[in-house]
């Protein structure tokens, strides 16, 4: 049989239906039985096999009036055809799984000043509601998280906003107040009406550069009228260390309210104070790429997380637009 070639001189690409028809005949060695097995009419089946032979330029079958035999080439190519059809089946199964929400991998990036305090709630939600989700967590600072989101290394971010990053959509979760953490005998410890102006001259301890919480604290201090020359120490890489420095009498610091129980509950050398309304606060949100393929899924996840966060000392946001 002469080959039917493309302009480049190569055999034409076979279709899936042609391979399916040939694989059925190769298994049944009977056109009528093969047609019944795959729900195709016998003439259509015969035409598909003939078209495959023409496309490949190879005789696949030896036809007689009483039986069908595979040619030597047909025996070899039947094995390949079955493998191709199995691979196509796997592709369709994977696509079906991808269409199902909350399956497959979801890579969440989270900042260090959120991770220890919110992840228990997040992980509990995922375990209880989304058991088929392959949930992966990456703790990094904001700049690294945004880079990971932009380049597809991460799917969602859990961090403080606003970000002001192009191509990023913020899904607000909640607002939380900052609390002043002081040594036990500090004059502001235990108060619930601390004016922001009190921050002007306090020995304030902050996180190292790169932490968004440091920047937020500095913004609060500037709003309170704190000058650049006021005492300020930057000597901690994490909130736990920061709190220990306060307990040692080196100064005071600001903690988000969600971190308060974890960081201060067992330390008798600390006191806390609340600011007068309106207290300085931060907003925590999920962030995704604009136009993300899983936008509806991510929005549903944000809404479920808002409900799960209600028992925490925060003001839960409404559904994002």
Automatic annotation (TrEMBL):
Pfam families recorded: HTH_1 (PF00126), LysR_substrate (PF03466)
InterPro entries: LysR_HTH_N, LysR_subst-bd, WH-like_DNA-bd_sf, WH_DNA-bd_sf
CDD domains in UniProt: PBP2_OxyR
Record keywords, A-Z: Activator, DNA-binding, Transcription, Transcription regulation
Protein origin, superkingdom: Bacteria
GO cellular component, as recorded: protein-DNA complex
Gene Ontology MF terms: DNA binding; DNA-binding transcription factor activity
Transmembrane segments: none
HTH lysR-type domain sequence ranges: 14-71
PROSITE patterns named among the record's database cross-references: HTH_LYSR (PS50931)
Gene3D superfamilies documented for this protein: Periplasmic binding protein-like II, Winged helix-like DNA-binding domain superfamily/Winged helix DNA-binding domain
SUPFAM superfamilies: Periplasmic binding protein-like II, Winged helix' DNA-binding domain
Listed PANTHER family: HYDROGEN PEROXIDE-INDUCIBLE GENES ACTIVATOR, TRANSCRIPTIONAL DUAL REGULATOR HCAR-RELATED
Protein family: Belongs to the LysR transcriptional regulatory family.
Name this polypeptide is given: Probable hydrogen peroxide-inducible genes activator
